[in-house]
Amino acid sequence: MKRVVLTAFALVTLFAGAASADPIGDWRVADGGATVRIKKCGAGLCGFVASTKGAPGKDERNPDPAKRNRSVLGIEVLINLRPSGNNVWTGTTYNAEDGLLYNATVTLSSERTLEIKGCGANGGVCGSETWNRVR
């Protein structure tokens, strides 16, 4: 009887640990110039620029002229991320440096490391970088 109870406890602990593996938290982008806060947004996840190393710039390359004068601080850069496998989420990423949206794949490589990959539509150019957890 003890063996069955221990096995059930081990399974519950294992699944509880797997369920908690997500990218929610604050992440420093690869060049260290900003921190992105990932949080739950509806049924998915989203990420916003939480801080910048220096004075925040403007969203000057946004395709919407009405948004080009807004600060990059607070803009959503990870949009509608949905689970897509073990420690993988897919959605959209916005790049304020060029004002474009990309198909995004976000992979939690470890509790401290997040891999972000963005690709243009229809097999366009792809880029990736590694973010580090701040908290």
From TrEMBL:
Keywords: Signal. The lineage of its organism: Bacteria, Pseudomonadati, Pseudomonadota, Alphaproteobacteria, Hyphomicrobiales. It comes from the Bacteria. The keyword Metal-binding does not apply. PANTHER family: BLL6627 PROTEIN (PTHR36919:SF2), BLR1215 PROTEIN (PTHR36919). Residues 1-21 form the signal peptide. This is DUF2147 domain-containing protein. Gene3D superfamilies: 2.40.128.520. Residues 25-133 form the DUF2147 domain. InterPro entries: DUF2147.
